[in-house]
């Protein structure tokens, strides 16, 4: 893969060559309304990256990674997910459906990115001028690339030449207002926001590499680090960025922008995440060196830094004419529809100020409108409540539904009327619904610590403001949901690819955990179930902070596992948070001397940090495959945090894919274990120790996962110091050949120990093979009996039934055949076999191989009998083990490809009187 950057390059003229048509977006072409667009010469290419991908399945994942890395490197994180999805589909069409190399070109243009994917399919029919390119059904496996381009890209098109087809698309970057100066009107003191104590503003300076160069006193107070502890460290080491797929800008990209505002978290010295609101400004010194100045406050004090909505000229004119300018109307205005979090936070802050409340909150309805999800609050412990869900219909009575305005004079008289405010000290509250076209989209509330603060008049004012903002909130919510779904699609595509790429159970478990942490959750645990009678077993635990993994694993091991309920969807599991809370409480009491003494002080901190890590919401998703629960995927958040509904839906999609991958890995492991166990039963348990003779065997079965094939060997004692030896080759490879292998090996041992001669043994084995009928296969076999002699030699009686002839190596390097060829087994009923006597003198080597050795090929070349003899001549003076190893190395070096046939090497050597 090659990439290159060409700043300032003008794009080439995209007009087609040789008079062939170019079909692109812009003007209709035929009934399918194809679109046309050309790369304007006025557009400037600021960067370029190109790569080619071979026509193999793994190229699709490589292309996705290439596009993702390229666009993130260019600071185009906002459009990465759409680009990855489109590239994945187009490259799949090229390398899988067309079966050609795919060329991917990424161009960074003014205000956007253009990506081109070309294939080289030579037999494609080129469309006629003006012809339409027909859109296929979205349910078909191929042909969805153009439909996705039409749905996601701003502009796209297809160019044809005699040698290739090129599909391109352009994605525009969202515009960001840079350097806008805004101001708000003077307000009465009672409308100003409250600050709970001194507001600390951390000032941090970051150099061009992302490392901290300055850290002020307020930063030390907020986060607990001294300046010398963090100077020189990257800010990304401290930042806990929200990892919701498809939303937000990465911290590295945010530091490169000239101006940026937003929320993220900073890990303090105790390991807790402090939610902050940040304002970044990129500057340069007199030497031209760029750096970024970051101002950070606690998230609930964001009004100190947050840029307010600009007041329009009409608002100013209305104010000067004495017309009503409701502060809620002035401050909310019409924010950018894609800034949902900022819009919601400004809404609750202005609602609180408008009614002079102590707190305010805003909840958004889920898709089915049965629950409300907390999305923003002020004056409340927002971290504890964020993404918490409450039912729309809270109970009977006049104010039991969020669909109607409600005023509560004193919550102590109606406990549980507003679950969100339980334990917060708030007494009076007014809530109103947010509705769009009569459909409930959310709920807005303002609360005060004093009772009886609100009446129907305040409810009407708040309802009027809610009606003004409801449409903007719904529009921003739908925009966020669309971005999340696009990111989820990209996430699931990559997850499916990774899960499909392995059949190893442990690796599948690790992939499941790594895909969920930190993208979907702060920590996760995977429980597996071996069979219906087994209890769930804790198989894998992962946390985004590796130092907490052991603590979480220890905590979960003390809790009964969740019930393996096959009901789809996520269900809340409260046991981890409750156990962690109790453990932290006991530890704190011991540290204060109120209970049993704490023996190890460092253990107190570990327990508290672990409790904080698992103290939030924990959910369990069943892993169901083939109508059976095979495990549970447990996802957790740190203290007081909740999951948003969209993340749970994405986790449910992932759990279905992960369950099938895990079950496939289980089935593969079980079948492999069974196969290997059966195959090992076909091999001799071990080689016997023969006095006066060295014996060595090397065996290689062809095919992945095979331990035994059609080749086999055996050496076994017969009687009176005699040993039988055999090496054979059944026609074919794999399990069918291995079945005949088992028959031959066990029959040889049984018949030889009956005292039969070599020819008689092979005659009966031949009959047994023929009796197999359709399952029979012909067999080449070298069988012999060996008797070590008192003078140091060894006498062999050999029958070579259609097998490659054994070779005898003498100490002087002479190589000769040690037997004559005879008919193979499994073909004829009557065989005329005879045995030959061979004497191995001290220093002699007898080499027996199967045809997988002699027929080893590299192109048109074959090792052959002569090549084997040449290698054997170099083995004088070597032990039997060294001879077998040298022969195998020579075979492997002869050809680089994996062997297509089984191979067996049997070497026997009679040690010389004076071995070298």
UniProtKB/TrEMBL annotation:
Protein name: SpoIIE family protein phosphatase
Species: Streptomyces cinereospinus
NCBIfam families reported in the protein's UniProt record: sensory_box (TIGR00229)
Annotated keywords: Hydrolase
Annotated spans, Disordered: 1-41
Biased composition (Polar residues): 16-25
Pfam families per record: GAF, GAF_3, HATPase_c_2, PAS, SpoIIE
Residue ranges occupied by any PAS domain in the UniProt entry: 203-233
InterPro entries cross-referenced by the UniProt entry: Bact_Sigma-Reg, GAF, GAF-like_dom_sf, HATPase_C_sf, HATPase_dom, PAS, PAS-like_dom_sf, PAS_fold
